[in-house]
């Protein structure tokens, strides 16, 4: 069987997506959608997919509906045969639509109402009929073209009450009505607590369970709990809620197996329409097709202020709105809504001299169809597409709520390609704490690894307003995990890079040990004498409060060196060179991936090597983050460290150690009694996770624009 659903596209943008009908080759949808049409001569593109949880959805077939063949004000039943350009001779089934085309006099627009009735003969099983069918719709395409992200069209929903139909506007076209568009209606906060009596999948009578969640195209994967049938995860994450009536969260539980495919343990679903809002629900979900149950906490909350608007209409230029935003994040409101740390406004103005991704025509006419994706953690919005242009102007304003001031704003430019995943044109990553408010800047676009420049620049104007107290408290809490991340793979250059980084951190400790040993050996009598006197003085007068005091003095000393112009921070050319080598290896791997099949045969060895590679990265990053804290790489974090060390010094000076240990022990022993579902965290590790490593510093480094490429020269050479 298949789990089919249908996408409708106009001009390359998704304007409607049907619900998924599970395990059915003849699905009946009976859904309605009302879509504004800008150009009736542009056909409506219809694509059918097979939903695969945890995997990329399989493409079943597609068809085009010629709108010019329809009569106005007359409902027409249309049967379209599904086709695949790669398999033109295959019968992929057909789809039946009831279509009504009517004019809208008040806006001089054309409206098309599609009622998805049923697929007549969807006789396809992807694995039997088309075992080698290539997938042309990548994960990136699914990420960007979600129904909630489409801002080019006006989408209406039709609710039927017997013979009465009520049209409700879900989002408004900003170019016509100059109003802001709310992109999602709410947030689903999920806490995965534990599993109980799960099915044993391994020979030792245990399992290594993990959980996958999916709401629409949003996905989350929990950590793996080794060798247990009663795992304790205690992980918290959020999904965006796009539908007024809620939605269904698909949950599957898997057993991790090294060297072979993971075993399926069971599944369950959470229907959000049955849950009340602004209330935390404790759910014990029994697993279907398996044993045991999952314990979850689910909370539905109102939507955060994430919007898209035209450049002529933005919050910070409205004096009244600006005052309200400043008041919301003032020090007086420091204890109100601790999750709402700040406000971010991004103006995506234009780009220049982009890479030409499409070459068409007899004269090899080069062009691109660029659009821009703006990401802040798991919030992802996009601009419209500017067709056949290498110097596009978008003039859009995006607003986000900031949950963590240490987040990084990512702006990526893609070239739109129909029927294929979008082509990458360039990317920039901007830490929020490095932003200068109200300044329009030209950012040089970088490659996918953010290690070097690619062609083109993008002009942005960014404003950040945040509450410093909330931001400081949030720093000591677990960092939000990105739902969509590239899977780790084995790379020789990456393995070597992480080994060298780890070696450099270890060498610091070894050199310190050699230095101390040389003092004991009296290699330099003056130095050994000074060290001996210092040792006697410190040991005789040592108190516990001197440990944070010494760290505090080290921070102050490094700050003094920086302001006096004696900055001891060096540009890490070694990491930069290794990143460039890694990028070249990535390019070679992409070209030769089909030829190298040995990685699949040695999957288990690869997984072990990837684990070693990741462990080396974690160890090296830990050492680099400690160094960068004391080097004032991020002044906000270094100031926060000074405050914390000062408080610890005062506490240790005035309060006996046994009282401090007593309070710490009581808190640890009673934490689960006071709150059984509390998520454990280590404040020190959470703090260090916000400090960038040397690799991240290289990726966030802002490149200077090449003065030899002026905008005027680019425009002369640009046919678009």
How many helices in DSSP terms? 16
Strand content: 25-35%
Largest sheet: 6 strands, antiparallel
Question: Distance N terminus to C terminus?
Answer: 46 Å
User: Given the helix and strand composition, which structural class is it?
Assistant: alpha+beta
How big is the Rg?
Answer: 29 Å
* Domain count: 4
Shape: globular
Q: How is the largest sheet built, in terms of strand order?
A: 6-7-8-3-9-10
Give the strand tally. 30
Quaternary structure state of the chains depicted: single chain
Account of the protein in words:
This is Multiple C2 and transmembrane domain-containing protein 1. Residues 1-80, 168-285, 319-445 form the C2 domain. The chain crosses the membrane at residues 529-560, 634-655. By secondary structure, the chain is an alpha+beta fold. It folds into 4 domains: 4-105 and 116-124, C2 domain (Immunoglobulin-like); 186-302, Immunoglobulin-like, CATH 2.60.40; 310-358 and 365-476, Immunoglobulin-like, CATH 2.60.40; 492-564 and 605-700, no CATH class. 29% of the residues lie in helices and 31% in strands. The chain has 16 helices and 30 strands. The strands form 7 sheets. Strands 6-7-8-3-9-10 form a 6-stranded antiparallel sheet, with no helix packed on it. A 6-stranded antiparallel sheet has the order 11-20-26-21-30-29. Helix 6 (492-520) packs antiparallel against helix 9, helix 6 crosses helix 11 and helix 8 (546-563) runs antiparallel to helix 12. The chain starts with a strand and ends with a helix. Mean pLDDT is 76; it is low at 106-182, 586-597 and 709-720.
